Each structure stands twice: as structure tokens, then as C-alpha cells.
Amino acid sequence: MPELRSSTRQARLRFRKLDDQQAEPAVKPVPPAPQRAGKCDHIPAARGRKGAPWRRVVPAPRRARKGAEVVDLDANLGSEHLPKAVAIHAVVCESKDPALNKVAQGVGNKGMRMDGESAEKLVGAEDDSTIAPIPERVHVGNSPVYITDRKLGKGGFGQVYVGRRVSGGTARTGPHAYEVALKFEHRSSKGCNFVPPYEWQVYQTLNGCYGVPAVHYKGRQGDYYILVMDILGPSLWDVWNSLGQAMSPHMAACIAVEAISILEKFHSKGFVHGDVKPENFLLGLPGSPEEKKLFLIDLGLASKWRDSSGQHVDYDQRPDIFRGTIRYASAHAHLGRTGSRRDDLESLAYTLIFLIKGRLPWQGYQGDTKSFLVCKKKMATSPDMLCSFCPPPFKQFLESVTNMKFDEEPNYAKLISLFESLIESPASRPYEAAVSLQCC
């Protein structure tokens, strides 16, 4: 198999000398030409000062709506964006990388289809105002009756609420818990399309897998497909916020060890997650035996890296399709390449660096070419620059995962060992224990 990572690695080396600054506008603004005298100069203004010269009023451009499912570069753009042909050509002419140029052509010709939910995604979650209200009571399959309580959050493929058991139930977690998480997905949503969500198949395959929350009941009620799951605690994003948007390298190392272990088990089932980020790693329920265990949630973008015969899936590239979260996605995901195990690990590397530094160099881009510009910046940012002020293990981890081949099997034990020096008690550090984050 050819070296599929070569174009990405060459681009990173080519742009290594670039500094860590935001991209400048592709074309410098041209000052307006002086107004020529015309036949209409004697006409007073319709409103304002009497005798003021007449000027043609140009309507203010409309801002692009958030949550558009397909980005159409032929649509009217704001004044801060260039027309499609100019913007794409101006940026592409700076790069000779064929893979990067291919992505730009995909953006210009077909638009980018985004899946999932995040502030860094071009496609938002479903519009709640256009669908049926959430049921006040839930009873699916053999489940007890739950009363729908407060909303916990929203993802690209559904909404999650607290469910309180009407009667019985004394446990904190498990099928007999008095509080559970209810995940609602409307049957007409993009994740369902009037059939049970694809995420159900993933949970069914992974149920009981280390680091994946347990699903106790599932079924359809009215217009909604509903999952009844263990309720969990705060996400790593919440923890990061509570710590003043900065996490110690020691804590990030503990998270790295546990997250790599979870991904190893996840991958062993034949799936890649496809959307690794701080919001999708949750701690267990506070006060429960699993309060310091890490869980990986939101499996709507998971895909198989091996087929039914056990062979690795074939490599493919579709620059017009992007799946994941722009901020944390691998460079391969931006280029439309088939997802594999290396992509989850690269996203984890960006997640860990973000938790320590509080910001990634490609944050702040806006507009319809955002995904392309972020991809270009990722490929131009060297590991030295990205991991500045981070302990050496984080740079070593980033270099290891970004140089993996498409079908390469990660050496998870070696990746975990990179962080041993940052954990105070390596001998007592559990790899797969329910209290794995106690070292933090």
C-alpha cells in the first residue's frame, strides 16, 4: 500500500517556518474609486440634508445562517468573505500540495456536508422549534415509567434529558437507577430518516465495552426513538472550564492514559469513534463508584474500520464530505479520507493540547471556507510550535499518531508509556480501573 500520509507530512514540512498567526485575507481590499459627477448629482437626497449629493445605497450583505446543512459557496456572502472563485483560487495558489488543492476544489464545487454538533461544526443540531415536543413520560420496551426532567444537553443526533423513575429504584446507576439519561432523537432527523438510529447499532455492538456507557432500554415512543442510559457526570470541557480554562499537564497525562485505553477497547470492536473531543469524554456520576471513571459518548459518527471478514476497509477519499468537529478533526478527515484508528488518536492529541494550553492555533477562522483554512493551518503547524509549553510526552504522542499509516495498528501500550513520567505514582496508576483518574 502506498504511503498515504506523505502528502500531509510534506505539507507540514513545507509550512514549518510559518508563524502561529491567523491567516491574512486572501485579497487585499481595494479602496473605492472616486465618485464621478453624473446626471443625478443635482438630485437632493431622499432623506437627510437638503441638497446632499445623491449616492447609490448598497444593501448590507446578509450574514450566513448558522446550522445550514449544506454550505453553498454560490450564495450571497458577507463583505468579509470573497466570492467563491476568488477565495478558493487565492488560497490554493499559495499551496502546491495536491491533496490540499483537491479539498479546495471539493469545497468550491460541491460544498461541505458536516455531521455532528459543536461550536466548531458548520452544521448544528436539529432545530427544536420544528419538531414535536419531548414526551413528558417515557416508557419503552420493558422499561419502568420515567418522568422527563431537566435537559442535560444536545448533540448533532439528539437531545438528552434526565429521566426520573415514577416508582421504585434505589440504585445510582444501572437498570434499577432512580435517575437515568434519556436520549431523544426525532424519527425524521438526519440520524434516523424514519428508521432506528445508526447509533443504536453501534451501542448494541459496544454495550458492555470498557469506557462506553451502558444502554438499559431502547424503543420508539410517538415521534421519538429513545435510549435509556446511565446518567453521567461532567465532561472534560466542564472540568476544563471549572479549572479556569487551563488543565495541568499531570491531569492531562492521566486523561491521556485512560482515553487511550478506552480507544483501544473501542477499536478492538471494529469501530472508530470519529468525533473525539473534550465534550464527548464524561466522568461518572458524582458520588457513585464510577465518579472518576472516564466514558466516551455520542457514537453517531462512529464507523467501521474493518469489514465483516476482519480485513481493514479500503482507502477512499471524498473531499466534499467532512465528518467530525473542525477544531479537533485529523488532517485526514479534512481531506475527506476514510476514517481509521489513527484519526481518533490524532483528535485525542489535539484534545490534550487544548486542555493544557486553552487554545489551538487554528481557532478563530470564520466563513464558508473555514474547514479548508483550518486544515491548511493544521498542516502548516509543526509539532514544536503546537506543543510549545507542553511537556515532551505530548509532542512525542502527536508525532507518533500523525505519522501513522492508514491501516497501521497503533501500539497502544507504547503510547500509554509516553505519559508514565508525568504521573506521580506510575506503580499505582490503573490502566483500566474504575478509579483511573484518582491520580489526578
Automatic annotation (TrEMBL):
ATP binds at residue 183. InterPro entries: CK1_Ser-Thr_kinase, Kinase-like_dom_sf, Prot_kinase_dom, Protein_kinase_ATP_BS, Ser/Thr_kinase_AS. Pfam families: Pkinase. It comes from the Eukaryota. Its EC number is 2.7.11.1. GO terms for molecular function: ATP binding; protein serine/threonine kinase activity. Keywords: ATP-binding, Kinase, Nucleotide-binding, Serine/threonine-protein kinase, Transferase. Residues 1-53 are annotated as: Disordered. Residues 146-423 form the Protein kinase domain. Residues 1-10 have a biased composition (Polar residues). Belongs to the protein kinase superfamily. CK1 Ser/Thr protein kinase family. Casein kinase I subfamily. PANTHER family: CASEIN KINASE-RELATED (PTHR11909). This is non-specific serine/threonine protein kinase. It comes from Triticum turgidum subsp. durum (Durum wheat). The lineage of its organism: Eukaryota, Viridiplantae, Streptophyta, Embryophyta, Tracheophyta.
